[in-house]
Amino acid sequence: YYILPRGQAVQYRIASGAEYMGWTGRAEVGAMKEWPTWMPTASIMERWPQFQVYKQHGPLEGRWDNPLGARALYLFVDNKDTLIRIHGTNEPSEIGGHVSSGCIRMRDMDAIDLYGRVHVGTPVVVVS
User: Catalytic: 98?
Assistant: First the structure.
């Protein structure tokens, strides 16, 4: 949900972290990017060896087939990047499931809408 004035809210459908991978807590938007690049984390490369190719070739540029989709909000705690993102997706059929490596996925059109409503410093609360 994105909370609006007067007790109203915008509800978005999301995909959350797979079992034992979901992150919860308080954070703030520390950075925002349109068509962000994607570099798999070390843990992702460990679980899915096919992503090792990015070690040599660098990150995937922002485009339609990028796992981060059209927009990304980078969550920070105490001014440190958590590596958790609220972002669009190149797999909209997974919205509604527990499928990510910890990030919160949204349909690209919803990620674009939310991106336009927040700013760096916006507080974020993630609950399970």
Answer: no
Catalytic entry in 57, 98, 103, 119: 103
Question: To which H or E segment does residue 72 belong?
Answer: strand 71-77
Query: Has domain 13-126 been given CATH number 2.60.15.10?
Result: no
Active-site annotation holder among 57, 87, 98, 119: 87
| Domain layout of the chain by residue ranges | 13-126
**Length in residues, the chain:** 128
Active site residue 57: no
User: What gap in Å lies between CA 48 and CA 26, rounded to an integer?
Assistant: 29
The residues facing 14 across adjacent strands are 106
How high is the mean pLDDT in each 10-residue block of the chain (128 residues)? 94 85 88 94 82 84 91 98 94 88 91 98 93
26 by Cβ neighbours in 10 Å (0-12 / 13-18 / 19+) ranks as exposed
